[in-house]
Design goal:
Layout: H1 2-26, E1 31-38, E2 42-49, E3 56-63, E4 70-75, E5 84-94, E6 99-109, H2 122-128, E7 142-143, E8 146-153, H3 154-188
Antiparallel strand pairs: 1-2, 1-4, 2-3, 3-8, 5-6, 6-7, 6-8
Helix pairs in contact: 1-3
Length: 218
């Protein structure tokens, strides 16, 4: 059971590794953002941001999210996904500033007062509202969820998610090497190559599985 669970985790980690690698390649010219709204006013926002020389990934857990549904956008970074304006928040950095963790209150601009969230060109909507000078509390031009976010370079995510698949591959390689070695030892000791039965009393044919001597194992 543990072996199956480990294999499942390795397969999931490999999928994440491939996805992070693809997003890293796309981040040279494009940013991607996907949002999944959950029950209870919660949502998960995953963003891959364009950067030079390296882009970065963001995973944001949101509460008090105002809209249901699933959204995806791919555009230059200034225009991708809901534009998050961190308000009262805390920031912690790790790995010499490569990893960021943020949590607190967020202002997310809407397309119009009381309207839907601006998933495209949100940064220009903020500029039109002079949001850089401050967001008025309770403004109908914004939604005000709370969030927790972790941010890291694509390359770091690729390396971390590659560890588990490499461990799985190493274990499988070692197990295969042991089987080959055992196969050779049993052959030298006069055992059946199919089932391992002792053939010293019947070297022509295995009485256990019926395999004839000199034939390849099925």
């Amino acid at each position: 059971m543990r072996r199956k669970f480990f294999t499942l985790c390795a397969a999931l980690s490999l999928s994440l590794c491939v996805a992070a690698g693809v997003l890293r390649f796309r981040s040279r010219t494009t940013s991607d953002a996907g949002l999944i709204a959950l029950p209870g006013g919660r949502a998960i926002l995953i963003s891959s941001n364009q950067g030079r020389p390296v882009g970065w990934l963001e995973i944001t857990l949101l509460s008090n999210w105002p809209e249901p549904g699933v959204r995806w956008s791919s555009r230059p970074w200034q225009s991708t996904g809901p534009f998050k304006f961190w308000q009262r928040s805390r920031v912690e950095t790790f790995g010499r500033g490569r990893w960021w963790m943020m949590w607190g209150d967020i202002a997310v601009v809407r397309e119009s007062p009381g309207g839907p969230i601006a998933y495209r060109d949100g940064i220009y909507r903020v500029a039109a509202l002079n949001g850089w000078a401050g967001v008025p509390p309770g403004s109908p031009d914004y939604a005000f969820p709370r969030g927790w976010e972790v941010r890291a370079p694509h390359s770091d995510v690729v390396v971390i998610t590659a560890v588990l698949p490499l461990v799985w591959l190493g274990q499988r390689t070692r197990s295969l090497a042991r089987r080959i070695a055992q196969h050779g030892r049993e052959h030298r000791r006069g055992h059946c190559l199919s089932c391992g039965y002792d053939l010293r009393a019947s070297p022509e044919r295995c009485p256990e599985c019926g395999r004839e001597a000199g034939k390849e194992a099925a």
